[in-house]
Automatic annotation (TrEMBL):
Region (Disordered): 1-38
Name of protein: Lethal giant larvae (Lgl)-like C-terminal domain-containing protein
Lethal giant larvae (Lgl)-like C-terminal domain location: 545-948
Gene Ontology biological process terms, A to Z: exocytosis; Golgi to plasma membrane transport
GO molecular function: GTPase activator activity; myosin II binding; syntaxin binding
Species the sequence originates in: Vanderwaltozyma polyspora (strain ATCC 22028 / DSM 70294 / BCRC 21397 / CBS 2163 / NBRC 10782 / NRRL Y-8283 / UCD 57-17) (Kluyveromyces polysporus)
Gene3D superfamilies: YVTN repeat-like/Quinoprotein amine dehydrogenase
Segments passing through the bilayer: none
Pfam families attached to this UniProt entry: Lgl_C
Superkingdom of origin organism: Eukaryota
Gene Ontology CC terms, in alphabetical order: cytoplasm; plasma membrane
SUPFAM superfamilies recorded: WD40 repeat-like
Amino acid sequence: MFKGKKLKDVLKSSSKSDGQTSSKKASDSGGSSRFKSMSSAFKSSSIPEISSSGSGMSRIFAASEINKHGIRGRITATAFDQTQSLLAIATDAGDLHVYGQKQVEVVFTFDGKAPIKEIIFIKGIYLAAIDEKDVIMILSLYSKKVLTTVFTPGKLTCVETDPSLDWILLGLQSGTIIAYDVDRDQMSHFKIENLQKLNFFKKGRVSPVVSMQWNPRDLATVLISYEQSTVIFSLADNSVKQHFIYELPPNAPGGEYSMDISETRYPKVIQSLYHPNSLHILTVHEDNSLVFWDANTGQLIQARTCFETDVHKPQPGLVKMAPTGIPRVRKAAWICQNNPEYTSLLIANSFSEDASRQQNLVYIDLGGTPLYTLTTYDAMSKFYSRPKEQKIFPLLKESKIVNFLPLPRASPFFGGSHDPAIILLFFENGEMETMLFPSGALSTKSTLLPQSLSWVRPFATKSVGVSVPKKLWLGMMSNARNETGILKGGFPVKKDTRVQEVRSAIATGHSNGSVRIWDASPAELEDTSVYEVNLGSILNVGKNFAVTNISFSADTLELSVAIESGDVVFFKFETNPNYSPNGANEKQMEMKFRRFSLNSSNDVLIDVSDRAPTNMNKGMIPSIVVHLNRGAVSAVRNSNIGFVAIAYKEGSIILVDRRGPAIIHSDNLKKISRLNSNCVTYIDFFILEYGAEGYSSIVMLCGTDAGELLTYKILPAQNGRFVVELIEVVQSNDPSPVRYIGAFDKTIGRSCIATIAKMQELSKGVPIPGYVVVATEADARIVKVGKSKESHKSFKAPVASSSLSFIPYLGSKGEQKLATVLVNILVNGEIKILSTPDLKEVKSLRSPVALQSKYMQESSVLENGDILVRSGQFNAVLLSVVNEFATGLRRQPVDNNKLQSTDTLYNPTLKIPYRPQVSSLQWARGTVMITASQLDSLLSGEKRPPSKYEESAIALGTVTLKPPKKSTQKMVEAGGQYKPEDMAYKVPVRHNQKSGGYGIFKSVARTVETQYDYIESNINEYATAMGDSMNEAMEDTSKDLMKGAIGF
């Protein structure tokens, strides 16, 4: 076929060619010889066996689980521990995942139990999981075991805890609140009865507890909400300190969902929140009202919605229409920056009952909070009604948002909302998104969170496994190290590493057009990285960009991706020519104007090489988009020799030469099929001998949905380009979609897959006698293209995936051998290993993990004996059918006793910072300050039993109990970092002269001489000085002196 330097000239000239080249087809007169029926195609004698069917080979095969990917089930609950930097996620399948740094992951499984609805980190070492049946399970992050199970005495409606405490407050359906001591595993006798029923709505129905929050600066008080009322309850005094009832008089508009405006209304409370300084509170109501209150006086400051203000004031003659298309408030968070006085609100609004399907997040930047003592109620009302900035972040999802979780950077306090930069969004269907705060941009960067969560952020619509040469793969991985992970906790365990020259990689395509490629067994590597591309930003389209097909060329590091619209994008791993580490320049600005939508282009091949991210130096760079407008793609194959074949569901087939780029062949299956095939379902490229020609050729084989096999030759043309010739069309298999086509050299058993190295050998005219394996859902056949020899194997259950695997092993005399086998995984979980070329069963195995047949069609059998099985909507599992120790290639088995089974989660060297305290003015007004140990005595009684768990001693000393020193009592705001020793209350102050070292009474006297604002800004330091220098009696005396001096 190729003589002398002809092939080299073709490769050189074709690399410079562009445009489309017409294909060369066989003449019509020769058509009858190409289209052979099944009866005439296979009549010769059976193929002789080669070494792969030898006896004793079955010993090297055994099924084992290598690695799990994704999560099993839909996300139902989440929690984040800022001190330990761990993220916990529960699913409706009964799994609870705890994630840390570098793929640290520990999974607690509760099969057969109700789904978990709430997760709480407690004191950094405990994790409480509450299921739908209101059973509390206490887990240890240290021992990674379930310590105890607690049955609550009623239906739980809400829970509350604090990072520095051992206690969980349990709000019940009856309106009662009880306390559970996690460290001692006992319920407290302390109880808060239904305060709404006892004090405010005595004749109304019993209200459950709907919301609770510990005062962010005072352990002695708790904010409690019922359906019609909210109270501040003092645990120290066992009494209500203040109450808040949102009453809408007639003609007051209220929230969007407040109707019957002619009557007095009491909109139901759904949530209540403290301002980080604890001086104001916010109640969120069912009608979308957001009501701000003075926590000390109970005065209503401002009632508003996300878009209207003063909704509590009557408007005579008001006519209110029923809301249409307005989403309902689902959750709010009062977020503060590193300085807790600078706050904002984040409000999640989900679908309403109508069909508008509108939902969003509303960001209200309130700015710096005015000084409490110097600000009137009118001024505060304007402060909450006229925010510094307000943004709406639309959520274009088909599923409701059900929750969001801020990931605080500064401290675990202030309701878990202290200076977050990332907000995790969770949707009803189990999908998850990552929002950058406060910009509102959704980030799909996969390295932010563990790889298991990539399957749901957003949903994975396609998954494929790829075999990659080990050295090439590790070099590629080292070029994109993961340095951006949010989670820093835990320590990865040292795990066993397999000895392989070929590694398994996994590529997932997602609903937002992103594709991620990573190592399929990351536990075997010290550090892993992910390569990610996003087609949505490259194509500049707003819909139909979910990924449907992925093909990755391991030898050339090329990638081809198809999306729902039918567009196919080519990528190549290379240096970014538009890389600009220092920001935008004139060239970048010019490129931005070129980023038009592809929908406006009539070109078939569109250059998008300028659309790579400018901040990426090296990676998967986009090159070409095939914009053919022929509908959905049925198959894509990116070869190792520069060709990409694309088949469409409407029957079209095209072949693109990347070197031009140029479309060198276009055909339609409906014109050449003998069995009315609709589309091509599988394509691959090989270099082998066709028939008895005596030389090898580049062959493209296509399988159809009716079991037909199409054989094409790719030939060099005189103009230095390539042409494509259709050689034959046969029915190779039973009428069912072709799932796999492979080929191997019958003399040495190696793969005949087309590579650059084999292509360069074509000029020598050496024939490669190849056998072709064609597998469908029902059977597998081995044929010799251009001849009529065959072997056949039928399966009792449908085949999910098939592939040739090439397994090296040592023979009985120590000689190196190669087992070339066809590995098939069936939808019922069976794994059939067949010898070649006779397709006799070598071994039958069962999958070691449970599988779901619904998703198994996206499984991939790889050449090293690994099987990537799509086991669910959100997960996959990597299996291996090779027993490495039985192959003889690993002579010294690893001592499993020396290997820890799971990762380490708890780090005892990390300390929970000192809890913020009340402001000086609140202290001066008589706020009763209690410590954590005093609260323990208050809730448990004088005789609190010793701890039941070793975790108590391990965590002893991890909670900072003493306030920071006076000299370090400042926030550290640089870079969003926060030092535990600097945890202290800070408000806007006037920088007056500070007191000297004359003792506490002289400091108090100097303070009395100034105004209230100076009192508020400085007495916190004096109170701390008193605690360090005087006993409790002297503290009481000085407080009485202060109260008398300022007239309280």
